């Protein structure tokens, strides 16, 4: 079928969009289509949009589904509608800049999904009204990545230890699955902590956990050290790095999503030893939102 015949005009929040190839299967093992993905993002938008607002977007695009080739896209794609908001961020070497799209409304979220952006990643800062970018961090993240022989179960155990340290520092962490294999803890920052301080805090936390739980935790990214341990990736606390957004789908065999979870659920998974306890596909995420609302208030 030609692209012209496989296109549908839709009105989204007063914006006219052309969506294409809605029957395209993006997750072959699950039969989950592009149309279903767009529908998921429409239905999750009220909860997801606040976690994207003001943050430069990096899209991980899979035009032919998760079994095909993919690419990361930071720059605003050519042909983007004029109403898509943007943020221009200097490159790390200071010699250039990147103009990112910003998902500020439902129409932009649908536009990104129609591009095959299965995954949506954002930094730990929001532009707001600031002229100088990147802005200081407004979030602190503890990224728990299971090494070979471990799973999200061990991440949950480490998360409990990390929570104790963070609360001792006066922070109030919340948890979400990565939607892949790991777990991430976020804590809001009051705006008085700069990048050097947040990075130092993260490194010190990782080293403290490693010292107290050497058989379970590693703070060094070297692959040979990670077998049977959980990496506390403190390096994510950097202005140029991104993490997967809350409620973003992931390019796995099933359309799992990065899902906010309660501390009771984290503890229960650590106790049960079953990684499936914290694996949520798109329909389950929508059910959770209907029943429990947004658990991710970071």
Distance between the termini: 44 Å
Outline: globular
Computed Rg: 19 Å
Q: Given the structure, what is the number of helices?
A: 6
Biggest sheet, strands in spatial order?
13-14-10-12-11-16
The CATH architecture of the largest domain is: 2-Layer Sandwich
Whole-number total of structural domains: 2
CATH T-level fold name of the largest domain: Alpha-Beta Plaits
Q: Helical residue percent?
A: 25-40%
Average per-residue pLDDT, rounded, comes to: 95
Structural class, by secondary structure, is alpha+beta
Instruction: Give me the count of strands.
Output: 16
The arrangement of helices and strands along the chain is EEEEHEEEEHEEHEEHEEEEHH
Question: Could you characterize the architecture of this molecule?
Answer:
This protein has helices at 34-48, 106-114, 152-168, 195-212, 263-272, 282-292; strands at 7-12, 15-20, 25-27, 32-33, 58-61, 71-73, 85-90, 97-102, 117-122, 139-146, 174-177, 183-188, 217-218, 230-233, 243-244, 260-261. It is 27% helix and 23% strand. It starts with 6 loop residues before the first strand and ends in a 6-residue tail after the last helix. A hairpin with a 5-residue loop joins strand 11 (174-177) and strand 12 (183-188). It is globular. The protein folds into two domains: 7-122, DNA primase, PRIM domain (Alpha-Beta Complex), CATH 3.90.920; 139-292, Alpha-Beta Plaits. The strands form five sheets. It has a six-stranded mixed beta sheet with strand order 13-14-10-12-11-16. The protein has a four-stranded antiparallel beta sheet with strand order 6-5-9-15. It is of the alpha+beta class and 298 residues long. The relative contact order is 0.16. It is built from six helices and 16 strands.
